[in-house]
Amino acid sequence: CWGPEWPGLLLLFQIQQTGSLDKVVSWTHEFPYAHQLWVGQFLGFLNIYDPDYAKAVYSRGDPKAPDFYDFFLQWIGKGLLVLQGPKWFQHRKLLTPGFHYDVLKPYVALFAESTRIMLDKWEKKAREQKSFDIYSDVGHMALDSLMKCTFGKGTSGLNDRDNNYYLSVEELTLLMQQRIYSFQYHNDFIYFLTPHGRRFLRACQVAHDHTDQVIRERKAALQDEKERERIQSKRHLDFLDILLGARDEEGIKLSDEDLRAEVDTFMFEGHDTTTSAISWVLYCMSLYPEHQRRCREEIQEILGDRDTLKWDDLAEMTYLTMCIKESFRLYPPVPQVYRQLSQPVNFVDGRSLPEGSLISLHIYALHRNSTVWPDPEVFNPLRFSPENVAGRHSFAFIPFSAGPRNCIGQQFAMAEVKVVTALCLLRFEFAPDPSRLPIKMPQLVLRSKNGIHLHLKPLGPGSEK
């Protein structure tokens, strides 16, 4: 059982500090499977980073740990991220068609459109021949893409209301992280009396007003027969179309509250995570010019004389895909996830935990666990060649979590990361700034305390072939 023989009585606030991620990795040598993790004196987790331990818990459908994920309720409501039981299963089933390949295919053009807006901005910045922080620009691009894929936004970019929404999501993410790691803020009554709590509520209101207005406008449009025909004949369905049309076997559709929750959940999960993923992939490309060159050559060969990407091109980007996965291994967009056991669990070493226990899966430490990954700090895309993948534990690499509660949008995310990275490599050569290397910070997503500063060298008019 989880008793005195479990090593490593540690405080959670220690792991949010600079250098803390690699501190947890060092503990994997001292404590082979897991260690205890405490928030204050009363809330204890088992922090795991071993594939067998991960499989024992994450191959099941245990709910998210309410001690952390309940903090999301004020913002994203009861969507897939926090739901459990029959309602989670119902929502998962209703939303799955929204991530079918046929729905995702037209998104490639939308990803490319938003990316080119960002790259044109980078052309101007690159002329100054100084490094700059790419993270914020990638964030705006990811939100622009999501607005188009979720709400069917036009090609003119974000308006003032959309930008306010972007800023509110950014602030909510930071405030959420701060609350999770500040034990005195765990009490709702106390938190919402503080300046941080009031800021959180104001930002929630901005996010909710935006989502509610878009849903109202779309529903009103669907009342008009001509507008309904126009929407249904669009060359692609957006995520809101899918949600509004979703019905279960009994013909029951999502309520307005459920609609908002799923839209807000998708906007949060699909924006901040892809921003982190793309930024770290480009950072890895900058560090390893030989891999960057090989990816660029692969993309150029796939495109030939074409200047646009198609869905079928993505499957041919085998080396780029291996590099993206290796970046996800070293810099997982979500470094840590939490569960609460709905029934006891027995681990491979004979230890066990009772029902109700809290589990923290440290994906960052799992991906750098030297008993699983030889030379874990080395960037080696060939780890993800078919022959190497075939012999690896199925829970050794889980950037999108694993099991029945894995990320429903992982195909969407992979497609976006491939499109954005490919177009970036065709336009620019990336190099790091040795004087401003990123400082990893484990927030809700993996960020850098000082941004991600890169040098960009334009490759000329023929480079986007």
UniProtKB/TrEMBL annotation:
Pfam families: p450. Keywords: Endoplasmic reticulum, Heme, Iron, Membrane, Metal-binding, Monooxygenase, Oxidoreductase, Signal, Transmembrane, Transmembrane helix. GO terms for cellular component: endoplasmic reticulum membrane. InterPro entries: Cyt_P450, Cyt_P450_CS, Cyt_P450_E_grp-I, Cyt_P450_sf, Cytochrome_P450_Monoox. It is found in: Endoplasmic reticulum membrane. Its cofactor is heme. PROSITE patterns: CYTOCHROME_P450. Residues 1-20 form the signal peptide. It comes from the Eukaryota. Heme binds at C407. GO terms for molecular function: heme binding; iron ion binding; monooxygenase activity; oxidoreductase activity, acting on paired donors, with incorporation or reduction of molecular oxygen. Belongs to the cytochrome P450 family. This is Cytochrome P450 4B1. It comes from Bison bison bison.
